[in-house]
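Example 3.2
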Amino acid sequence: MSEKKLWGGRFTKSTDSFTDHFHSSIGFDSRMYRQDILGSVAHAAMLGRQGIIPEKDSELIQKTLKEILKDIEEGKVEFNEKAEDIHMNIESILIDRIGDVGKRLHTGRSRNDQVALDIRMYLKDQITDIKKLVLELVGVLNNIASEHTATIMPGYTHLQNAQPVTLAHHVLAYVEMLKRDYARLTDTYKRTNVMPLGSGALAATTYPLDRVFVMEQLGFDSITLDSMDGVSDRDFVIELLNTLSILMVHLSRFCEEIVIWSSQQYKFIELDDAYSTGSSIMPQKKNPDMAELIRGKSGRVFGHLMAMLTTMKGLPLAYNKDMQEDKEGVFDAVDTIKMCLPVFTKMLATMTVNKDTMYSAAKKGFMNATDAADWLVKRGVPFRDAHEIIGRLVLYSINNDKSLDELTLDEYKAISDIFTEDIYKAISLEECVNSRKVDGGPSESYIKGLIELNKQYISEMEEQDK
């Protein structure tokens, strides 16, 4: 490959070798080789179709670019740091192979709109992959829920025992979060799926480009409508980083619960050996390292979002070299998500749920106190008075080391003579859960319906994304 810079005509000496290294992005943007070549093939086809370059030159360029793509995928091509980036590398290889005809490829375009095209194409592919991974996780969680519609566990506020729920109810809360993540990915894809090629460096070009033809060839929905925005817009990168950050928040929150639930103090679950590690010094240890690592990697993704916001906040129109910093962060965020999601999904799919331990935990901490108060309200007692009566019963139970269901009816009546034998059914854990039939609640009847809705959702999303 020629060492001469393709932009070197105005310069009288070569760049410093360290400057070459500092300036180069081939180390990280080489992953976009496929998108760069496909974009160039479409551009060359359009140039020939429009009569901007001879048709035979267009055909030779397209043929050679496809050969270069095949050679890269077979490991026959070594990129050169001195060619700076993937765009210049591909073009230099093309020129080495077909000479001056290859120099016609860059007619009517700039690296500015070329890189904007490549990163949009690359991120479209990545968003599609991530959506599939999210949908797989939704399916696993929905399956877990279907197996545990009657598995009663403590529901918490402030990490204190609050009210009894089911594991299905708890898990399906994360399904709702992931469905929102899926919707955000879909929305981000829409704004990424806009074709910038033809914007030139910033002011388009005098050549009669057919941007719509290129758009259709590359599978975009529309073209950018302002050439300055076309080369300088990175909102879609920021939006994707934001979407991935929120997704990592959800994974991290669940991982925190996995860490807690698998502890000796809780023992709600046991992780499969394939998704746990041991200690180098303590033989008894089984650590939830996968959950902890995913929780830790959330900060990494958040950092890339903040870095991108900071990079873009002070840039005047149009393109600035600062924008080369758009790639490493979003590439790493994408890689991180695509590594975390499969591990997280398999970790949950293989965990063992200790139903009896969850049920025993739900019987502690007066989690049926609200239901006892509701029982009074349904018998005409104002809620504030009912709240006070049950509060006194709880205090009495604490002082006598009893639970509400262990109190005798006489003990209930000593606080309020309204109580009857019916109170015991009302405060059973099963009744506490299943009497909450309101939409969104933990009752088994509602949860089973929600599981079916989620199955339908998964099928619709899979069909929509075919």
